[in-house]
Amino acid sequence: MSTNDRDLDDGKSPDEYTDPDLREASEAVMEDTIEAVVPYMPIVLPVMGGAMMFLLAFIAVFMA
């Protein structure tokens, strides 16, 4: 494990870093996953709902 790996994996938030280069690098890497997914939800939810209804209907017809 290199020095940089230990520095990034010490549990601190980027605001607590004293090294400006390390703070800049960690802020560039840090991204909120929820905020990245939210714009796609109006498209993904109806499409997946439709696919699920189709699959459930297919199973019901197949079982009947």
Structural class assignment: mainly alpha
Helix fraction by DSSP (H/I, runs of at least 4): 55-70%
- Parts with pLDDT < 50 across at least 5 consecutive residues: none
Oligomer: single chain
Strand content: under 5%
Q: In one word, what is the shape?
A: rod-shaped
Main sheet: strands, sense, barrel: none
Q: Span between N and C termini?
A: 60 Å
What is the count of β-strands?
Answer: 0
Mean pLDDT over all positions: 77
| Radius of gyration, CA atoms, in whole angstroms | 22 Å
How many DSSP H or I helices?
4
Order of helices and strands: HHHH
Sum this structure up briefly.
It is built from four helices and no strands. With 64 residues, it is mostly helical. The protein is rod-shaped.
Can you walk through the features of this model?
The chain has 64 residues and is mainly α. The chain is built from four helices and no strands. The chain starts with a helix and ends with a helix.
